[in-house]
## 1
Amino acid sequence: MPDRPTLSALIVAKNEAATLPECIAALDWADEVVVVVDASSTDATERVARSTRARVLVRPFDDFATQRNASLGLATGDWVFAVDADERATPELAAEIRATLADPARTHAGYRVPIRSVVLGRRFRFSGTQHDLPLRLFRRDLGRWVGTVHETVDLAGTSGQLDFHLEHRTIPDMQTFLSKINHYTNLEAIRFHREGRPFRVVDLAVRPFWTFAKLYLGKQGFRDGVEGLAFCALSGLSVAVRHWKHRELIRSAGGAS
């Protein structure tokens, strides 16, 4: 019987000194762990990463796809498993991944992994990421990330889906939520500007309300309590903020808006 393919766990991190040790510990079943640290981190992320068994690279942030591809370039495993520093691989998911890689009859080049989120201290059941199925496990030689903000894997082959989930301990408090909104809307506005998209008033006036309604009513975010209300409302607000920032970039470049 052939040996089980080797697995590299990949993490990108910025200011994640508090979350990184537990994330890496939850990956102790992987053959190696690779951490790419954003050079603009202002806490002890690099020191913490180097204190573990992980392979560490510190590099300036270009975009999320480039950061993840940098981790891919360091990996040596036959397969890679990508997680964020605030995510945890549950024991059930770890066992499923090991069993999947050990199965000589598998036909897929990658696998999508369900996500379950804890937002503002509450385990979400409706308006969080419970419907997300990102491609997180794939053959190293058949996948590469594309996209500057909401990056995805360009996979040369078919993908399946795993049953067990990653636990996403995201947005512990309002300060973190507002900081993330500011960071991501900056990146999205820059992407829109680089792509030459025009600013449209409808994006500012209608899309935020549509986003709120989709999450709060369509996904039943109201069933996630007051935390669900805050999440859905601020998700809508972030849409307005990114389009306003896009408008500011156009105006600063001398364009009409």
## 2
Amino acid sequence: MEENSAYFELLFVKETEGTITESEKAELAEWLTDPQHRTVYEEQKKLWASVGDLQKMKTIDQKRALKKVEARLFARPSAYYLKKLERAAAVLFIPLLLSALWMLYNSYQPGNEIHETVFNTIEVPPGTRSSFTLPDGTFVKLNAGSSLKYPVSFEKRERQVELTGEAWFEVKKDEHRPFLVSTSDINIKVLGTSFNCNAYPNAAQIETALVEGKIEISGKSGKNKFLMEPGELAVFSKQEKTIEKTQTNLDKHIAWTSGKLMFRDDPMTTVIEKLGRWYRVEFRVEDPEILNYTYSATFSGESLDQVLKMLALSAPINFRVLPREKSDDLEYETQVIKLTKK
């Protein structure tokens, strides 16, 4: 027989399980005559007993045990029990520790994990546009100066994203998981459709243009729900907190998705706002009367200089491009264009 610790630890296990033979008992007894071996043996017994307690704890009827504990805790203790508690304090520490370990162990069992939603945010700076596909297969185009926040993996019950700015959505149909677009003031619910939502933070209103399918629009409180049909434009007033629907030509509202800027009798405030984001420039209006003008035109691939010249030809406006200045970190500031009345 090869006398080593591993062999006698195996004999100890067999002894605990009740499967040890008489000859093995004799070997174990002889091995334990050494004081050092006896110390190891006693430590193993304590550890094994602790594991046994832990296994028993899993079979405890938690509700019944809790009621018993509450009855004892809130009953008026006698002097006899107070003395008992003082002497039992040290003994109670061990099962409490085992209980804590048991709960910690179970909290990390498969299926008990706490999943924290991880989000992606795509930001498109002024002067650019971006197209991408979401995890569920929904196709999105983001206009200049916009951002979209979405989860890396959509939930089983719904697909929710947060929009700041303007985006075009071609939603992947999923009858069991509605697609939700959350903006600063309204929510849009859809199962599968194509629509455009213009929700820039500084704008006075939010515009939603529906091309295909059906969508439901509601305020952030969930009240005042509106169903939209294809060809309709819904305009939400941030000041009045109202929504108006109209049947209209949606071309100018979705033209940007094909690289075009389309204006149809739009106020000059809207024109310079869109041009500013599209070309990443800042307009400074020197004569307020300019803002009362309306403008109609379609731009497709023209440079900023060409657009400004066409604007000056069709409206009584002069423009002047100011030299770009450098900031303290030596980066150029946004290009500034001054508009004056002719």
## 3
Amino acid sequence: MSSHLNPVEFIGMIQPREQSEIHPARGPSVDPGYLVASAQAHDEAGFDRILIGWHSNGPDGFQLAAHAGAHTKKVGFLVAHRPGFRSPSVAARDYATLDQLTGGRAAIHVISGGDDVDQARDGDWLDKDARYARTDEYVQILKSIWTAQQPVDFEGAYYRIKGASPEVRTVQRPRLPIYFGGASEAALRVAGKHADVYALWGETQAQVREIVTRVRAEAAKHGRQNEVRFSLSFRPILAETEEAAWAKAERILGRIREIRGSAILGGNTHAPQNAGSQRLLAAAALGDRPEGRLYTAIARETGARGNTTALVGTPQQVAEAFLEYHALGVTTFLIRGFDPLEDAIDYGRALLPITKRLVAERAALRVAAE
């Protein structure tokens, strides 16, 4: 399936309290008012989904999503999940329950964990390859239960289940969408087998072409090469003029440098183990502005410990950059700002509408040409 036939999807991200690389977290770990305000801002801005991350020191994503779901109307919830800490049969019911409570707005973002230190905080001592082997079984069980008409049995190296009930059904049929993160060889093998949407962080166009090709090759081994879609994550930095946008980006970088060593950036002094961070650092090694709108200085400054590459410019310019990635097969953009709530509102005013218009215009031109 060619990218121009797919609609463009936008995913935001909500936090249980105000925090980002330029806003060190303060106060209790859950601020219900901020959570709801952020979810409603994304709902009103026209986002398709909002990601709720998984952190070894963070509150439970299912409960955050259920609370936010009760205060929103349309936006979906992409709840990150690390296989191994809940039984897969329990997780299947958790997600199906969330899908029922939100009227069919739940999805799972499978992240197997790329940092041994962080995994150990929750008692997981498997190495990376073993984690992905476990994830393979885990997602297979989830899919089996969500689509089953009778109790499910499974026996593998990591899980043995007898008679798991499929009674708690998902609203979405046949099952929930499965988003998948991870850039190692082991991760790509599992993604090719199970992912509906393969998610990667913001990279150069050459890097995106390369990994899209590899994921499709893995998917082809299971007859799924045309079934996998691709998501790319960025931190758009917008202003009314290009000059003002780059000045804003430099101010954000300066602020991050000021607060290095704070709670939000401190505590992780070892080099990142996960392949996604290593790919971002490889892009940053090409320079702060390796191509077009791409800005990698923040990824370099923070050790690329998360989605930290930016696209910088006016809303029109950043939308045009999205269009270039869309032409490479990317149909989903996961975006969040350094001022998370305010930027979500700002994206909804111009960036999302312009991008959707440009994608529709390009699709119409191609259809006319055919």
